[in-house]
Every structure is written in C-alpha cells, then in structure tokens.
Amino acid sequence: MQLKGKHILVGVTGGIAAYKTPMLVREFVRRGAEVKVVMTPMARQFVTPLTLATVSKNPIVVDFFDPENGQWNSHVSLGTWTDAYVIAPATANTLAKMANGMADNLLLTTYLSARCVVFAAPAMDLDMMSHPATVKNIETLRERGVEIIEAAEGELASGLSGKGRMAEPQDIAYGVESYFARREGSMRGRRILVTAGPTYEKIDPVRFIGNYSSGKMGYAIAEELGSRGANVVLVSGPVKMSARSTNIEVVKVESAKQMLAAAQSAFGECDAAIMTAAVADFAPEEVADQKIKRHGDYTIKLVANPDIAAELGRMKTGRQVIAGFALETNDEMRNAHGKLEKKNMDFIVLNSLADKGAGFMTDTNKVTIIEKDGTTTPYPLKSKSDVAIDIVDTLERTMSSTK
Ligand code: C5P
Questions:
Q1: pLDDT digits 0-9 by tens, 279-288
Q2: Considering 211, 247, 335, 365, which one is annotated as catalytic?
Q3: Domains and CATH numbers, the chain
Q4: Is 332 in the pocket of ligand 1 (CB under 6 A)?
C-alpha cells in the first residue's frame, strides 16, 4: 500500500485509451490512494464521467464552472490538493498544449498551476507519436520534470501496429508507486543486487543443461525491494517473468559465467546482494559449434561452474551484506550453516524439498532464516511475495546493524 493516503488526480484526455482509465483509477484506489478525476470535454466521448465518478468515489470535473448553478471549479485548489497528477491518456494535442503553456481547459490550467509531480502517459497513433513535433514536445516536458510513462508497442485503434498504446493501467500505477517509494520508502537510496532464475549451460547451438527454477522467488524479492524504494539490479537467468517496479534494472544473462560477470560488475556499487539464482553447478567443458548428430551414445564432460555467491563473499566489504538460499533434501540445518560460513553470508534462507509447497516452480514457499549469529527463525508456508517480505525485513534489520 505504497500509495496509502496519497491524493492522486487523474487527467483524462480525448483518446481511445481513455476507456482504460476506470481501471487505472481502481489501481490507485486499490493501493490506498484517494483519487479525483479531471477530464477534457473531448474525453467524455470515450469514457463517461459517471463511470469515473463511481470508481473514484468523487465527482468529476470537466468545465471551469457548472452551467447549472455557476459554481466555479478551481484549478488552483485541485492543483494544491494533489500529490501526483497523472495525465493518462495524454494525446498528442494535450502534450503539445502542455509543452506550449496553453490553458484552454481545466485539465491544462490545473497542469500549469500544479506544484506536485506530473506524470504523462502518451497514447496516439504511431505516426503521430514519431512526428518530430510530438517527439520534441515530449522531450520539452521531460526536461521540465514531467515523468513520461512510455507508450507501449502493439495494436493501435487505427488498425496499425507500432509504438503508441498507452502503458497498461497496472504499469502506470507501478510507475507512480515506484516514484514515491524512491523518495519515501524505507530502503530509498540503497542499491541491492539480486540474482534470480536458472542458468543455461550450452551443449551445442540447440541444447543446454538447465534446471526447473522459475525465478518467482527472486523476482518477488526484487519487487519487494523496489516497493521499499531500493534501486535493484536484478541479474536474471532465462525466465518467463518480467519486473514491474520501475526501480528494478534487469540484466538478462544465460550462463553461470555471464551471471558471475554481471553480478561482479554490479556488486561494488551495491549495499547488499540476495542470491536466489539456481546456478548450474556444472557446464560442458566444450560447446559444439554444430548440432551434435545422433550416432549412438554420447558423453559430455562437465566442469565445475564458478560459485557466484562465494565469489561475492570474497569481494564483500564490512559495510556490505550478502544473503543466499539453501535448497536441501537432507541434513538441512547442518548444510545450511556450512554454506553460510563457506560463502561468507550474513544470513541464509533454507528451504527443504521435503516440505510440500516449497522450492521450485511453486507460488508458495516455506523457509527458515538462519543468521550469522545463529538466530534461527522458522516461518509457516506462505506465498512467495509474503516470504519476500520476511526476507527483506531480515535484510533491512541486518543492514541497519552492519552500518
Ligand atoms: O551451494 P549451493 O548451490 O547449495 O548454494 C546455494 C546458494 O549459493 C544460493 O544462494 C545460490 O544462489 C548461490 N550459488 C551461486 N553460484 C553457484 C551456486 C550457488 O551463487 N554456482
């Protein structure tokens, strides 16, 4: 609930993507924000004020005054009420007016008088989007501090396909949430490395050695860190997941060697690392450059991969914290303690394959966190995002005592 208590003003302009704004309003409400909506007169052709008033639980403002009773709608009071003004969709027309200081509707006068952060989510046809005038207007707004939420590529209302679709409501909400987290979150200013997913070790151009890791635990940890305002470097093996928080920078790798190189180059700048990747222990000594043909049996010689956690453990300075995972099938406690020490970790998250619902590919996990000083905390079976909260709480506590 990173937006709890925040006042968000949604500005809706006249583009087809306006039909998604009720969903956007709900995303903000769901995150605990209070939402008001201002629309341009044209926007009413695409989404009704009644819908937006219902989902935002507040009356919608469109005109400078109410023609029925002459009541004045003050752009100044809207501008001072709001903590974030989110203009979505932002049409080419509105962006041009914003860049040139025009003020012929309430949405624009509110923009010109707003003292809070302003976000704009452009949405238009691809040729309008790439027109030098629009490109320049967006650049001007960016230079003036408007947070641009990039349009996505895909199918457009015109039937054409390209860049111009408004970012999805959830992604706009993530963008706003990440912005506040960077300024107000408990981990703001911290830089954290997370490794996630499996590694693939090439055998030939079409085959590899991999494992069943889905990346879910690592991505959940990265999201939790991002939602607390940390800058996250997520070094990820091949997974189907994608990061939502805009505080996460994803570095995609394939093999253990690539993961090691990416992790080593990021770690120097980081305050901590959480190693969740299921790194392959071995890789083929040689990679065939042609597809290996079937002529009966075939033997591959495997050589040991680098231990990324242990390498970072060697690089670690007194102000840095490292946490890792131990996935065990037997002798769990002893093995986990051994790894903690050998890899110079500050705490280790033990999960046992003997526990139902724990480990690979599941949406849940059951962990025990073992700290360097021997403190051992078992947790019940939880969703991976709830487990991520426990892990990041432990990280925050460890970091505050490591300073
Ligand atoms: O030794 P083991 O593979 O059980 O250790 C697990 C921990 O070490 C995890 O945190 C994992 O991400 C990390 N690890 C690593 N590089 C390896 C093997 C494991 O970073 N080659």
A1: 999 999 999 9
A2: 211
A3: 7-182 (3.40.50.1950), 187-400 (3.40.50.10300)
A4: no
